[in-house]
Design goal:
The structure is a homotrimer. Chain A has about 300 residues and is α/β, with parallel strands linked by helices. Chain A is built from ten helices and eleven strands. Chain A is about 35% helix and about 15% strand. Chain A starts with 15 loop residues before the first helix and ends with a helix.
Amino acid sequence: MNFKGKSIVSMNDFSREDIEHVFSVSESFGEIQRARLDILRNYILATLFFEPSTRTRLSFESAMQRLGGGVIGFADPSVARAGEAEPLEDTIRVVQNYADVIAMRHNEAEAAKKAADVSRVPILNGGDGPNEHPTQALLDLYTIKKEKGQIDGLKIALVGDLFHLRTLRSLAYGLCRFDVQLFLVSPPELRLNEDVMVPLKQSGVFYKELTDIREIIGQIDVLYTDYFPKGRFKDLSLYEKYKMEYRFNRDTLKGVKEDFIILHPMPRKDSVGYQIYPDVDSLHCARYFEQVLNGVRIRMALLAMVLGER
Amino acid sequence: MNFKGKSIVSMNDFSREDIEHVFSVSESFGEIQRARLDILRNYILATLFFEPSTRTRLSFESAMQRLGGGVIGFADPSVARAGEAEPLEDTIRVVQNYADVIAMRHNEAEAAKKAADVSRVPILNGGDGPNEHPTQALLDLYTIKKEKGQIDGLKIALVGDLFHLRTLRSLAYGLCRFDVQLFLVSPPELRLNEDVMVPLKQSGVFYKELTDIREIIGQIDVLYTDYFPKGRFKDLSLYEKYKMEYRFNRDTLKGVKEDFIILHPMPRKDSVGYQIYPDVDSLHCARYFEQVLNGVRIRMALLAMVLGER
Amino acid sequence: MNFKGKSIVSMNDFSREDIEHVFSVSESFGEIQRARLDILRNYILATLFFEPSTRTRLSFESAMQRLGGGVIGFADPSVARAGEAEPLEDTIRVVQNYADVIAMRHNEAEAAKKAADVSRVPILNGGDGPNEHPTQALLDLYTIKKEKGQIDGLKIALVGDLFHLRTLRSLAYGLCRFDVQLFLVSPPELRLNEDVMVPLKQSGVFYKELTDIREIIGQIDVLYTDYFPKGRFKDLSLYEKYKMEYRFNRDTLKGVKEDFIILHPMPRKDSVGYQIYPDVDSLHCARYFEQVLNGVRIRMALLAMVLGER
């Protein structure tokens, strides 16, 4: 697709060619630290974070400034709360007059789509409730490609709460576009929902749903996991039942393939403890901090593309 | 007046010539979206929001960045609360060392004047309690002029809580400078206060105070309304009595003149409901989203003028 | 030391030559208000304020923008609270991918060192609990030098809670490098701790610990004071006992030397009242607002130096 003027709402909107185009624009920027390009100097990004997020917000703001653009926005739900009564659509109709592109996070599923439907400037979905997080999925795919050379041919495990987690859901949409073997590892009650399963099945990609990561830990090339999001569970007893599952340390990672990598969108510690323990950090397989820098690069590409400057 | 180095505290300080000068500087910037000028690149704006405000703050910050300037500040009363014990005057005496111009919002009437009295950099009043909101009034006047061709000769209704609302009060000060007919529509207990009525009477402008908007809805050219600010009512029973008044939809706007317009500083929905219902949005008369972009333009002009660059 | 790539964690790491080098870089920028240099245009500063601070944060952000750099960050502990479970080390390992230098404030002693130990970008300590505030100490020393011509030979009183206050502790470290006479004025229970007393004794600088400021008020050249930080007292009865001590007005400053100056890191009013009353402001000795502008200058120098651009 031609990205100019487009919103980035769902990973399911991306063809394989789209994904690869984002990668190639990302690569084109060269070294991005201690550097500034001026290709977006005429533009302002608004970051509207109805839910707090240090990482995603700072990543977008860093990307925009690396390209010479300006940034406005709010970081804090308390500021948004002041206009609580205002419908999201009105906020967007207002802010599109202050900025040329909007990156937003919201606690409601489909919020990004709702925003995009009324906006005349591109909306970048920085996470909408339990729904999607497409810019994260793009940086995850990019990290896999960069670390493993290519995505095709890999055995990839998505591990954890596949029902509630937008990161895992968006990544599943993205991986459908490649010739991979997917292992969907989750508690039986927290499997990937129909809306992702349908395109997954249609894609013809091999997949297997299972519960015990130990069954496949020795054969996979990539393991991707994320936290159990307590706030999204309607039935807290379900959360309590599984919250300690799928936590990785040197012991649980014994027997992995030599060039295996483990990824995580961060933070990798929640109120219950580490999902990936610090004793993993110094292993070659630990690539979760590399993801972060790749995130800036991917968001630079997306900003430039939707603004028509790449 | 020569705006260089001046604070913008009250709309009552503006002559007709001043207002028209702001308009003409605003016009001079050309297209402001997807654009950046560099005329304020040597300057920093501090936005000090002791009360949260997404709209006004983002508008100032967008304006400053469109002109190439830098922005620092706080958006959130919780940050300000940290220095709760610090008198406003001290905060200003400190921040004037970090920035070249200060835009502020405060919950106390006269806070902007108090700040301007000690500041060596210009203060732009972004709303001080129930007192004034002059930059909003300027953008309102500008919108009226742009939409109607000229302000002189118009019949304009200011509708709602004329006692507590700084937007309505500042706009009344501004409209006195033109040859208009003013309809001041409010509950009897919430009429325009003496401090605005005195200059209004002195100006010789025709005005009429009334309670029922239906009496004049068919003859007016412009209707301007805003919410009932619960937090400013000493007597909450008065708020409860009137909070549902003056709400507009297609029905209540039946019979308006063909080129009638309705304005609102936004948000147009409060905790009780819409003041202007979404079914109005697609009518020609709905100009409240146009106001927003005009706001950036007006604030660009004011920033450039008080910094001596226009 | 060569500052390029270095973190600024403790004032105790600065030799006299280092301090003077910071001063001379600070001087080299010329007029800093209404001005922008572009020497840091390729860099981004992250301000991570786990504890709110208007002054220090805005000072860093102003300094960075005066030098043409970009700024990202969080101002508010509520945003940080969202990632409460994340260890500081992880936050730093993430943010170093978004920014080229990090200025941080934290409520824990040694937090800055902990951050610097894992960071590949320089960390600037903007206050870590009761431990240190080296950039403040540098601006304090710079202000003394600028106001008095030189630091050597002066009689300087540090007044207040020498046990809990990072500003007083860092300044004591810094003053050891000069040929001064130090008067350490505090309640007996709140004297300077061993970690500062040891280098102070080793330095050979004359010092005297006392409780009553009146004993020496007529002979000192510089008086530096700060508030009693209630939140850091384990024994609140100790706080209650002393909270009203060492407050200065025209009366208590009677009999000072003609060229005496009084400094304060601001705010000079806490929930109990003024430490320095407004009736002092118009006296020649009041130099606490001058400190603020010097703070921007010093932080400009530090940013440029650790980034290798000065």
